[in-house]
Amino acid sequence: MRKIRWGRMVRRGLAVCMVAVSLWLLLAGAAGGAAHPLAESEAFVTAALRTELGSQGQGGPGFWERLALSQSALLERNLLGEEAPPEPAATLEPLPNAQPAPDHDDVHDQPQVTAAPESIVERTLTPTTSQGYATGAGLYLYNRTDLEVDLAAAARRELPFSLAPGAQGPQILIIHTHTTEAYTPDGVDVYAPSDNNTRTLEETYNMLRVGDEMERVFTEMGLGVIHDRGVYDYPAYKGAYTRSGPAVEEYLKQYPSIRIVLDVHRDALVGSDGTVYKAVTTIDRVKTAQVMLVIGSNAAGGDHPGWEDNLALATRLQKSLDTLYPTLARPMTLRQSSYNQELSPGSLLVEVGTHGNTLQEALAAARDFARAAGAVFLSLTEEG
How far, in Å, CA of 216 to CA of 33, rounded? Predict the structure, then answer.
């Protein structure tokens, strides 16, 4: 009896070795071109195993069969008659419209959707196709107007101003029409909300802090800066541009040396399903919010004939951003509202991140933006 059992064990051991060799030959394609497709056939390899091991599917595989099959979970499932677990469904997050939030038109003041930092979806918003964009000179512009735009011509357009070298007085004005805009509380950057769950009067955490960072970099580069600290969106949000406009006019009157006006905001991106997104990239191994230049126009009927001068300035800044810090800048956007940009030919709206970003990501973006923009401003001084 023992001799019979030992003989059976020897035969089965040899069978296991034969199976291993057969599988190796099949999968390695050593059996020739005709056998290669069979080696890729899940059904064929399983049937070959059944034949080689003598399994008829009655009572399931024995110990030796399981031993041979244990090296392949896929084949083991097939021989056991188990169904493979379903492939995980593709979870394609709906991407939000990558343009400025509607609140920058000052048309409403709805509380913005917020989320815990760990549930916010990160996206690096860069164009993957020219569809939907005006393109030219290697630049992309999302045109939200019915105006004709020639980006190549805009990039060649001479600016109607320059920064006078050695001029007495500031050359740059930083203002925040929506001063109290803030970012997602994270770590030690936690603030007391004001009238909205994504805004605060605390200067350490709202747009004034971002403007301070830009001012510091510009000043270190030798540029003169005025940083307005007025609050224009509190206690009333609607009409903020109506209130910030006279402040810009007063600065331009008081300081004729000002040639650049930057209205610094942050964006807000929420998907149709309520998902909160943040526009983020990595610059020099630092997680950094993306920035976006917004150019106003006269498409809504306002008196702003010089919007193309501001577009020309934007193309220079965008080129500098793309060169020094690729992926830092989202595509530029041309909007119907003027955003007070009719007051000066060097005026732009700068979106630093979104409300899903953290303050630290926004500060990193502010520094990089100021370095790239400062290089352009200094070149305007040289041209002058």
Answer: 69
